[in-house]
Design goal:
DNA-binding transcriptional regulator, AcrR family (chains A, B), DNA-binding (chains A, B), Homeodomain-like_sf (chains A, B), homodimer, 224 residues, HTH-type_TetR-like_transc_reg (chains A, B)
């Protein structure tokens, strides 16, 4: 949960994004942001290095929260990364107004677009670094691909939610992440009921392996 | 293939990166780059907007080449994206000295690291945009995930090649991209010999679908 400093910062971010979306990013001064947020210019610069920083300050808070979440103990590091992405997504669902305003502001200022890409990449890097520590035996490339897929999926659905209203929900993200999760590592969970049971699958030669996997998954889930 | 302007630009890029790696990025002036490349300051600024631009000018050339490649006719757009990534990778294999120098320079200057992330993202965006045009019926998220995986894989192996010498080859990339390719779309190629044949697979219930797919793939490839 955000602490008091985070809440204070979020208040400033929110006021700044409101001003940017009303007046434009370039036309809004730090003094106007400080006034709208009811703080002094000095306090602004103690909390944020620049006008640009304030646009992404909520990401700083969420990156710290994702990092904190991952630092706890987890049975399954792949699941933990998916859960961290869910936490970020759900937080943005709550902050939807702010995210929507940022979307509008960022897409008018190329420097902010670049900064958004770099910010998004920091989640990817956080996930890869965590997986490397948590799964030292795992092939590096699997962790890189997994983190890239999780981050791209999160960003894509977040953008749809922010841009198109409620079209993308956290349930969509949960389902998409579960699909990605199925593609990596092994689940060590004991197979409860079906332990020792065998599955026989018959399919035309030439069927793509992913398609086989997908059909099997659906059938196996139906059986549960 | 690079044309004359590209070759000229690459010559300047190469001289600039050599100077940056010898003297440091901040300590090298545009005048020194121009002198080393045997051009005037004016010619430098006709070709590049800034000292920062020159660091990534070869990416501009490769992005244009990838775009040109994708604009041609392709039977399979997924394969075309993998081939475009291969083209970029192989070009960097030829330019290995330059890529190695850039690696050293970029990792000392935070602004250049950010710029590298943004540049990498432009390949991802190029791939997504192309797939959307080429496969209008395909789910958007598949194309986003595919492009993110291809780009992350390319960048990871490129970084290993540049940082650790010849450890990652274009054969590694080809194999990794083929794995990603198997995960999406359908291959419409006619199943030659095995047409109409069926495969029967037996495996313990609870085996992860991806693992089933992987085992099947290996067995089916052995049979070929």
């Amino acid at each position: 949960m955000p602490d008091d400093t985070d809440r204070f910062r979020l208040h400033v971010v929110s006021e700044a994004l409101r001003l940017f979306s009303e007046k434009g990013y370039e036309a809004t001064s730090v003094d106007e942001i400080a006034e709208a947020a009811g703080i002094s210019r000095r306090t602004f610069f103690r909390q944020f290095r620049s006008k640009e920083d304030v646009v992404f300050a909520d990401h700083e808070i969420l990156l710290a929260q994702a990092q904190e979440y991952l630092a706890a103990d987890h049975d399954d590091p792949w699941d933990a990364v998916c859960d961290a992405a869910m936490i970020v997504f759900e937080r943005f669902s709550q902050w939807n107004d702010m995210a929507t305003r940022r979307y509008a502001v960022v897409h008018e200022v190329p420097a902010l677009r670049d900064r958004e890409i770099v910010t998004g990449f920091r989640y990817e890097r956080l996930f890869v670094d965590y997986l490397r520590r948590a799964l030292p035996g795992e092939p590096d490339l699997s962790m890189v691909q997994f983190s890239a897929s999780v981050t791209a999926t999160h960003n894509y659905l977040l953008r749809r939610m922010v841009r198109d209203g409620a079209e993308a929900t956290s349930e969509d993200l949960r389902a998409a992440l579960a699909d990605i999760r199925r593609g990596v590592g092994r689940r060590d969970a004991p197979a409860a009921d079906g332990d020792g049971e065998m599955v026989v699958a018959v399919f035309p030669r030439g069927t793509a392996p992913r398609r086989v996997a997908e059909l099997l998954r659906r059938r196996l889930e139906e059986d549960e």
